[in-house]
Amino acid sequence: MKTWSDVAEVQPLASKIIINSMKKGRISHAYLLQGERGTGKQGIARLLAKGLFCDNKQGVEPCHTCNACKRIDSGNHPDVHWIEPDGQSIKIEQIRNLQKEFTYSGLESNQKVYIITGADTLTLNAANRILKFLEEPSKKTTAIMLTENSQSIIPTIRSRCQVIDLQPLNSDHFQSQLVEAGVQEKSAKVLSALTNNFDEAMAWNEDEWFATARKLMVQLIEAFVNQPDDAYLFIHNHWVTNFKERKEQEQGLDLLLLAFKDILYFHIGTEDKLVVFSPGEERLERLGMYFSQEKLVSILHYLLQAKQKLKQNVHPTLVMEQLTLQIQR
């Protein structure tokens, strides 16, 4: 999203709130942008920063060509600071370094902006430290916090920010975009259920690893039905060796969630919502006969628990072992 007009097309309410504030010269000292991946959080944050530093604005729209805009795009503007998780979390040392930066005057103006991506990963100590900025805001300081999981933001931070909810993108429209770009319709359904980011979806579609991941997901579910005694072995011989990185492990669980949701949709007669399987597919009927509706609800709960355990840094092999045993019960 390059302009506020682009934002308005996908996030009309959010763009209206921010544009009105900009026109009135009432930019908040702190924003909390919350929404799923691909809903435009970083794009909006970047536009906000450009709006504060651009030398050649046309109304609320930054020019994108001046020195300030170009440096914000490249991440090299001296008065715009991006904070991202160091590993699994944003640590207190990162916030201390940010505070140190803010003791100095702005290099080119008194305006400063800091953008915290993955704000829900702030450790408790880091979150408490950032409160000092929010409790004693400078007129020339703007905080922009981005999160997919707003419930993990401590209430004292939320209460000091202007919270802006970003709505999920229209899945059907996104699927159509992918199909128009050459993605097969079936794959477009799966990709649009996993991400709202076009570039990410296209990269996954061309990634051999992702194709293997989809196959392993189906093979694991069928192993629970056809060879339940071998499911545990399948986890160690195939699943763990393919899903090595944290993002890959989360993606594997997301694929399993989609598949088990499909089986539940089969039970309740809403096959128009199928993503992984197709209506009338023999394999889906067989899986529906094996997994009861009650069991499927439990499995979905176990999968969500497994995702949470990964976020809590439980060893991924242990997470999958526990999940396998839970599904086998």
TrEMBL record:
GO biological process: DNA-templated DNA replication
Stored Gene3D superfamilies: P-loop containing nucleotide triphosphate hydrolases
Superkingdom: Bacteria
SUPFAM superfamilies in the record: P-loop containing nucleoside triphosphate hydrolases (SSF52540)
GO molecular function: 3'-5' exonuclease activity; DNA-directed DNA polymerase activity
Protein name: DNA polymerase III, delta prime subunit
